[in-house]
Amino acid sequence: MTTDEIVPFDELANVSGYRRPCNIRGWLDANRIRYLQNASGRPIVARSTFMQALGVKPTTIDSTPLRGINTANLDHLHAQKRK
For the CA atoms of 10, 12, 15, 20, what is the dihedral angle to 10 degrees? Predict the structure, then answer.
């Protein structure tokens, strides 16, 4: 999971209005937002869960295969294998 997929602690503090992890966890509980807790007691919230709790509908992922620099051209690889 990349850091973009996790809500930073400072953002949770800003939205909740609390600074202490125990208070932020209480706020998350009161708002029925699911989270995990790290070893230091700070809540870890997935960005998608947080956005859904705020009423933002999840975007649908286009299943169309991508063609570009960062994608493999499997057709080319299969053609090379047949030669």
Answer: -80
Q: Do the beta carbons of residue 48 and residue 58 sit within 8 Å?
A: yes
H helix or E strand, kind and range, residue 44? strand 43-44
**Rounded to two decimals, what is the model's pTM?**
0.65
Q: H or E element: which one contains 37? A: strand 36-37
| CA dihedral sign of residues 38, 43, 46, 49 | positive
pLDDT at 61: 52
Q: Which two tokens stand for residue 43?
A: 């809540």
The predicted-structure confidence for 17-64, as pLDDT tens digits, reads as follows 999 999 999 999 999 999 999 999 999 999 999 999 888 887 655 555
Spatial neighbors of 56 by CB under 8 A, at least 6 apart, are none
